[in-house]
Amino acid sequence: MGTKDHKERKNHAGLLLSQEKWDIRYDILHHSLWIVVKWLFLLDALWYIIFIMDGYGAQVEIFFRIAAAPFVLFIMLLVFGFYVARHKTILNDYIMLSILNFVVLIIMAGDQWTHSLQIICILPIIFVMILERLQLIYFQVFLSTSLVIVHFTLVELYSVSPWKNHILLNFSGIIFNVFIIAKIVVQIRKYTQMLDTQITIDSLTRLYNHEAFYEELDRKMENYKQTGRPLCVLIADIDNFKKVNDTYGHAYGDKVLKVLAEIFREESSVKCFVARYGGEEFAMILDMNQDDAVRKAHRIRERFEQQKIPDESGRAYSFTLSVGVACCSSEFLTSSQFFEKADEALYKAKASGKNRVCL
Q: Is the pTM of this model over 0.70?
């Protein structure tokens, strides 16, 4: 524990976060492309029916010109998915954005007779919003705007197609655009919610994880510097937990962790932020003074000690908890310094006999 361990954990979490962010971006891109391909096939089938109804007949040339764009996208998507899955390739933001822009170019090139699919240019802009790169956003807005102007000019001024202002073609294209954009926005929302859960919630206890704890502690420290309101941190560690795992097995150890997590959850309130700090360690940020924080720590320790946790055979065992508490003051310049004091208090509780609370 301590400041060094605090930084190591944050660096490790940063690596995990980066990989998870890439995974979620790939999922968003892959599913977005499938949505576009699927519905573009349906739209083009509708357009071909409109051409036939207008008296032009089932012309093979028109069919291939209409089907070219979704077919190329379909092949590209298959190759893209196969390549990434086979080679475990991590594509950077620029490559993924280039793929989306290529998709837009194919769709707009396939829309040779109308200008009803121009809003498809917003797809890369939607995607680039999740990349957290401001320069890319500005660049993509400029690129998409340029594509719209060029496409509109080519279709409106230079196209001799009798269908460029066809009401049914344009109306169906607008409906297609609205539907596609809506589905992709919903999808991005769903995946980003999944990402938020993955990077902030501990999978075993369903409490916040250490990364979320650090972020909340930083936020609380900034608030403390501005308002001076009472702020405390407690860190709890199950005594001799390695022996619990070695004696009763890791499955039983997980059960013990869940029991303690439930106690922390029940003892939390709007003034408390609870997290599984790591391993058998749990932490709580408390918007309360020292006396209230110490009472909270004693109550958690006593409740855990009183728990009888049965194993598979029905025999029940109880365990103890050591807790360190620190209260914020002006001497702490960073959240790491504040956290280190609570860490020192936990060591003090361990060194002085365990099963106790120390400041």
A: no
